[in-house]
Design brief:
- It is globular and about 55 Å long.
- By secondary structure, the protein is an alpha/beta fold.
- Strand 4, helix 4 and strand 5 (136-141) form a beta-alpha-beta unit.
- It has one domain (6-266): Rossmann fold.
- The longest helix has 29 residues, at 105-133.
- It has helices spanning 15-26, 38-47, 68-82, 105-133, 154-174, 192-197, 203-209, 217-229, 239-250, 252-266, and strands at 6-10, 30-35, 58-62, 87-90, 136-141, 179-184, 234-235.
- The relative contact order is 0.12.
- Bound molecules: NADP nicotinamide-adenine-dinucleotide phosphate.
- NADP nicotinamide-adenine-dinucleotide phosphate binds next to helix 1 and helix 6.
Length: 272
């Protein structure tokens, strides 16, 4: 399914985007990796030949997903360099965790700009190429935070719920044009983003995320690839996370009751 395909991965220089890049190159895909830090992008590009037996083309593109004109230009450069894309994976993302009272408006703006508008700009940039080709596939890396609320994640949950809404609308709207969507909703997994989060997160957030076991980056990447191969719309890595999502969907009052109980037992609050 991936051999000879051209795949754009935003956030391809780190964490999940990087891990997906190694797997997809090993399956014979040509890759365009997008992020801001050129040195980190280049180090992923360098690591790829050792990870694949196929002859694949892997190129790095330095671009900020928050800048729509840079996204559009980068899209054009990618088409000139590796050809018309077959798949777009929106993995670029940031997180910021804190008590709502302590989060400035700029944080909400930055998180929305990156996680939601970055995803939107990239879909806008590739859509004309997909339409020309008569097909395409868009994989939006969302989060369980895009399906439910979590303590301390007010900017992140807002941005990921927006990604869920966008993906749900576009799935139904673009299916007649043979453009397929995948909404990927992992719970927490090991990555540089989480390493950084662990240095400052609130006690309440730390406690509440322990409800679902933290998965390894490798397991999450494997399950995402399998989900795309099976053409699954909603991809939730990890059996316990899937069970949790079903519980939340059919018995939301139970998950609300459980999280209220956990928070009651550990609440310190912004002044604590
Ligand atoms: N880790 C988790 O527990 C978890 C759970 C659920 C969902 N997710 C989602 O999974 C995705 C990947 O997360 P991760 O944990 O792999 O994070 P990560 O290791 O921090 O990687 C984030 C990537 O996004 C890029 N990025 C950030 N801002 C960007 C911008 N403005 N323009 C271009 N690229 C940008 C970063 O590169 P530069 O900084 O160089 O630009 C980096 O390549 C995110 O969407 C995240 O929300 C993560």
């Amino acid at each position: 399914m991936f051999e000879g395909k051209n795949i754009i991965i935003t956030g391809g220089s780190s964490g999940l985007g990087e891990e997906l890049a190694y797997r997809l190159a090993a399956k014979g895909a040509n890759l365009a990796l997008v992020a801001r830090d050129q040195a980190r992008l280049q180090s992923v590009v360098k690591n790829i030949p050792s990870a694949t037996a196929h002859k694949v083309r892997v190129e790095a593109f330095q671009s900020d997903v928050c800048d729509p004109s840079s996204v559009e230009q980068t899209g054009r450069r990618i088409v000139e360099t590796i050809g018309i894309p077959d798949i777009l994976i929106n993995s670029a993302g940031i997180i910021s965790e804190n008590y709502f009272e302590k989060l400035p408006l700029e944080t909400f703006q930055k998180v929305m700009d990156t996680n939601f508008f970055g995803t939107l700009y990239w879909i806008k940039a590739v859509l004309p190429y997909f339409q020309k080709k008569g097909q395409g596939r868009i994989v939006n890396i969302c989060s369980m935070a895009g399906l439910m609320g979590t303590f301390g994640y007010s900017p992140y949950c807002s941005s990921k719920h927006a990604v869920t809404g966008l993906t749900q609308s576009l799935r139904v709207e673009l299916k007649p044009q043979n453009i397929r969507f995948h909404l990927v909703c992992p719970a927490e997994f090991t990555s540089p983003m989480v390493d950084q989060l662990n240095t400052y997160r609130t006690a309440e957030n730390r406690k509440i995320v322990q409800t679902i076991p933290v998965l390894s980056l490798e397991k999450v990447a494997d399950e995402i690839i399998r989900g795309i191969e099976k053409d699954k719309y909603l991809i939730i890595p990890g059996a316990i996370t899937r069970l949790f999502e079903i519980l939340n969907r059919y018995f939301p009052s139970l998950t609300r009751w459980t999280s209220d109980l956990i928070i009651r037992q550990c609440y310190k609050g912004p002044k604590g």
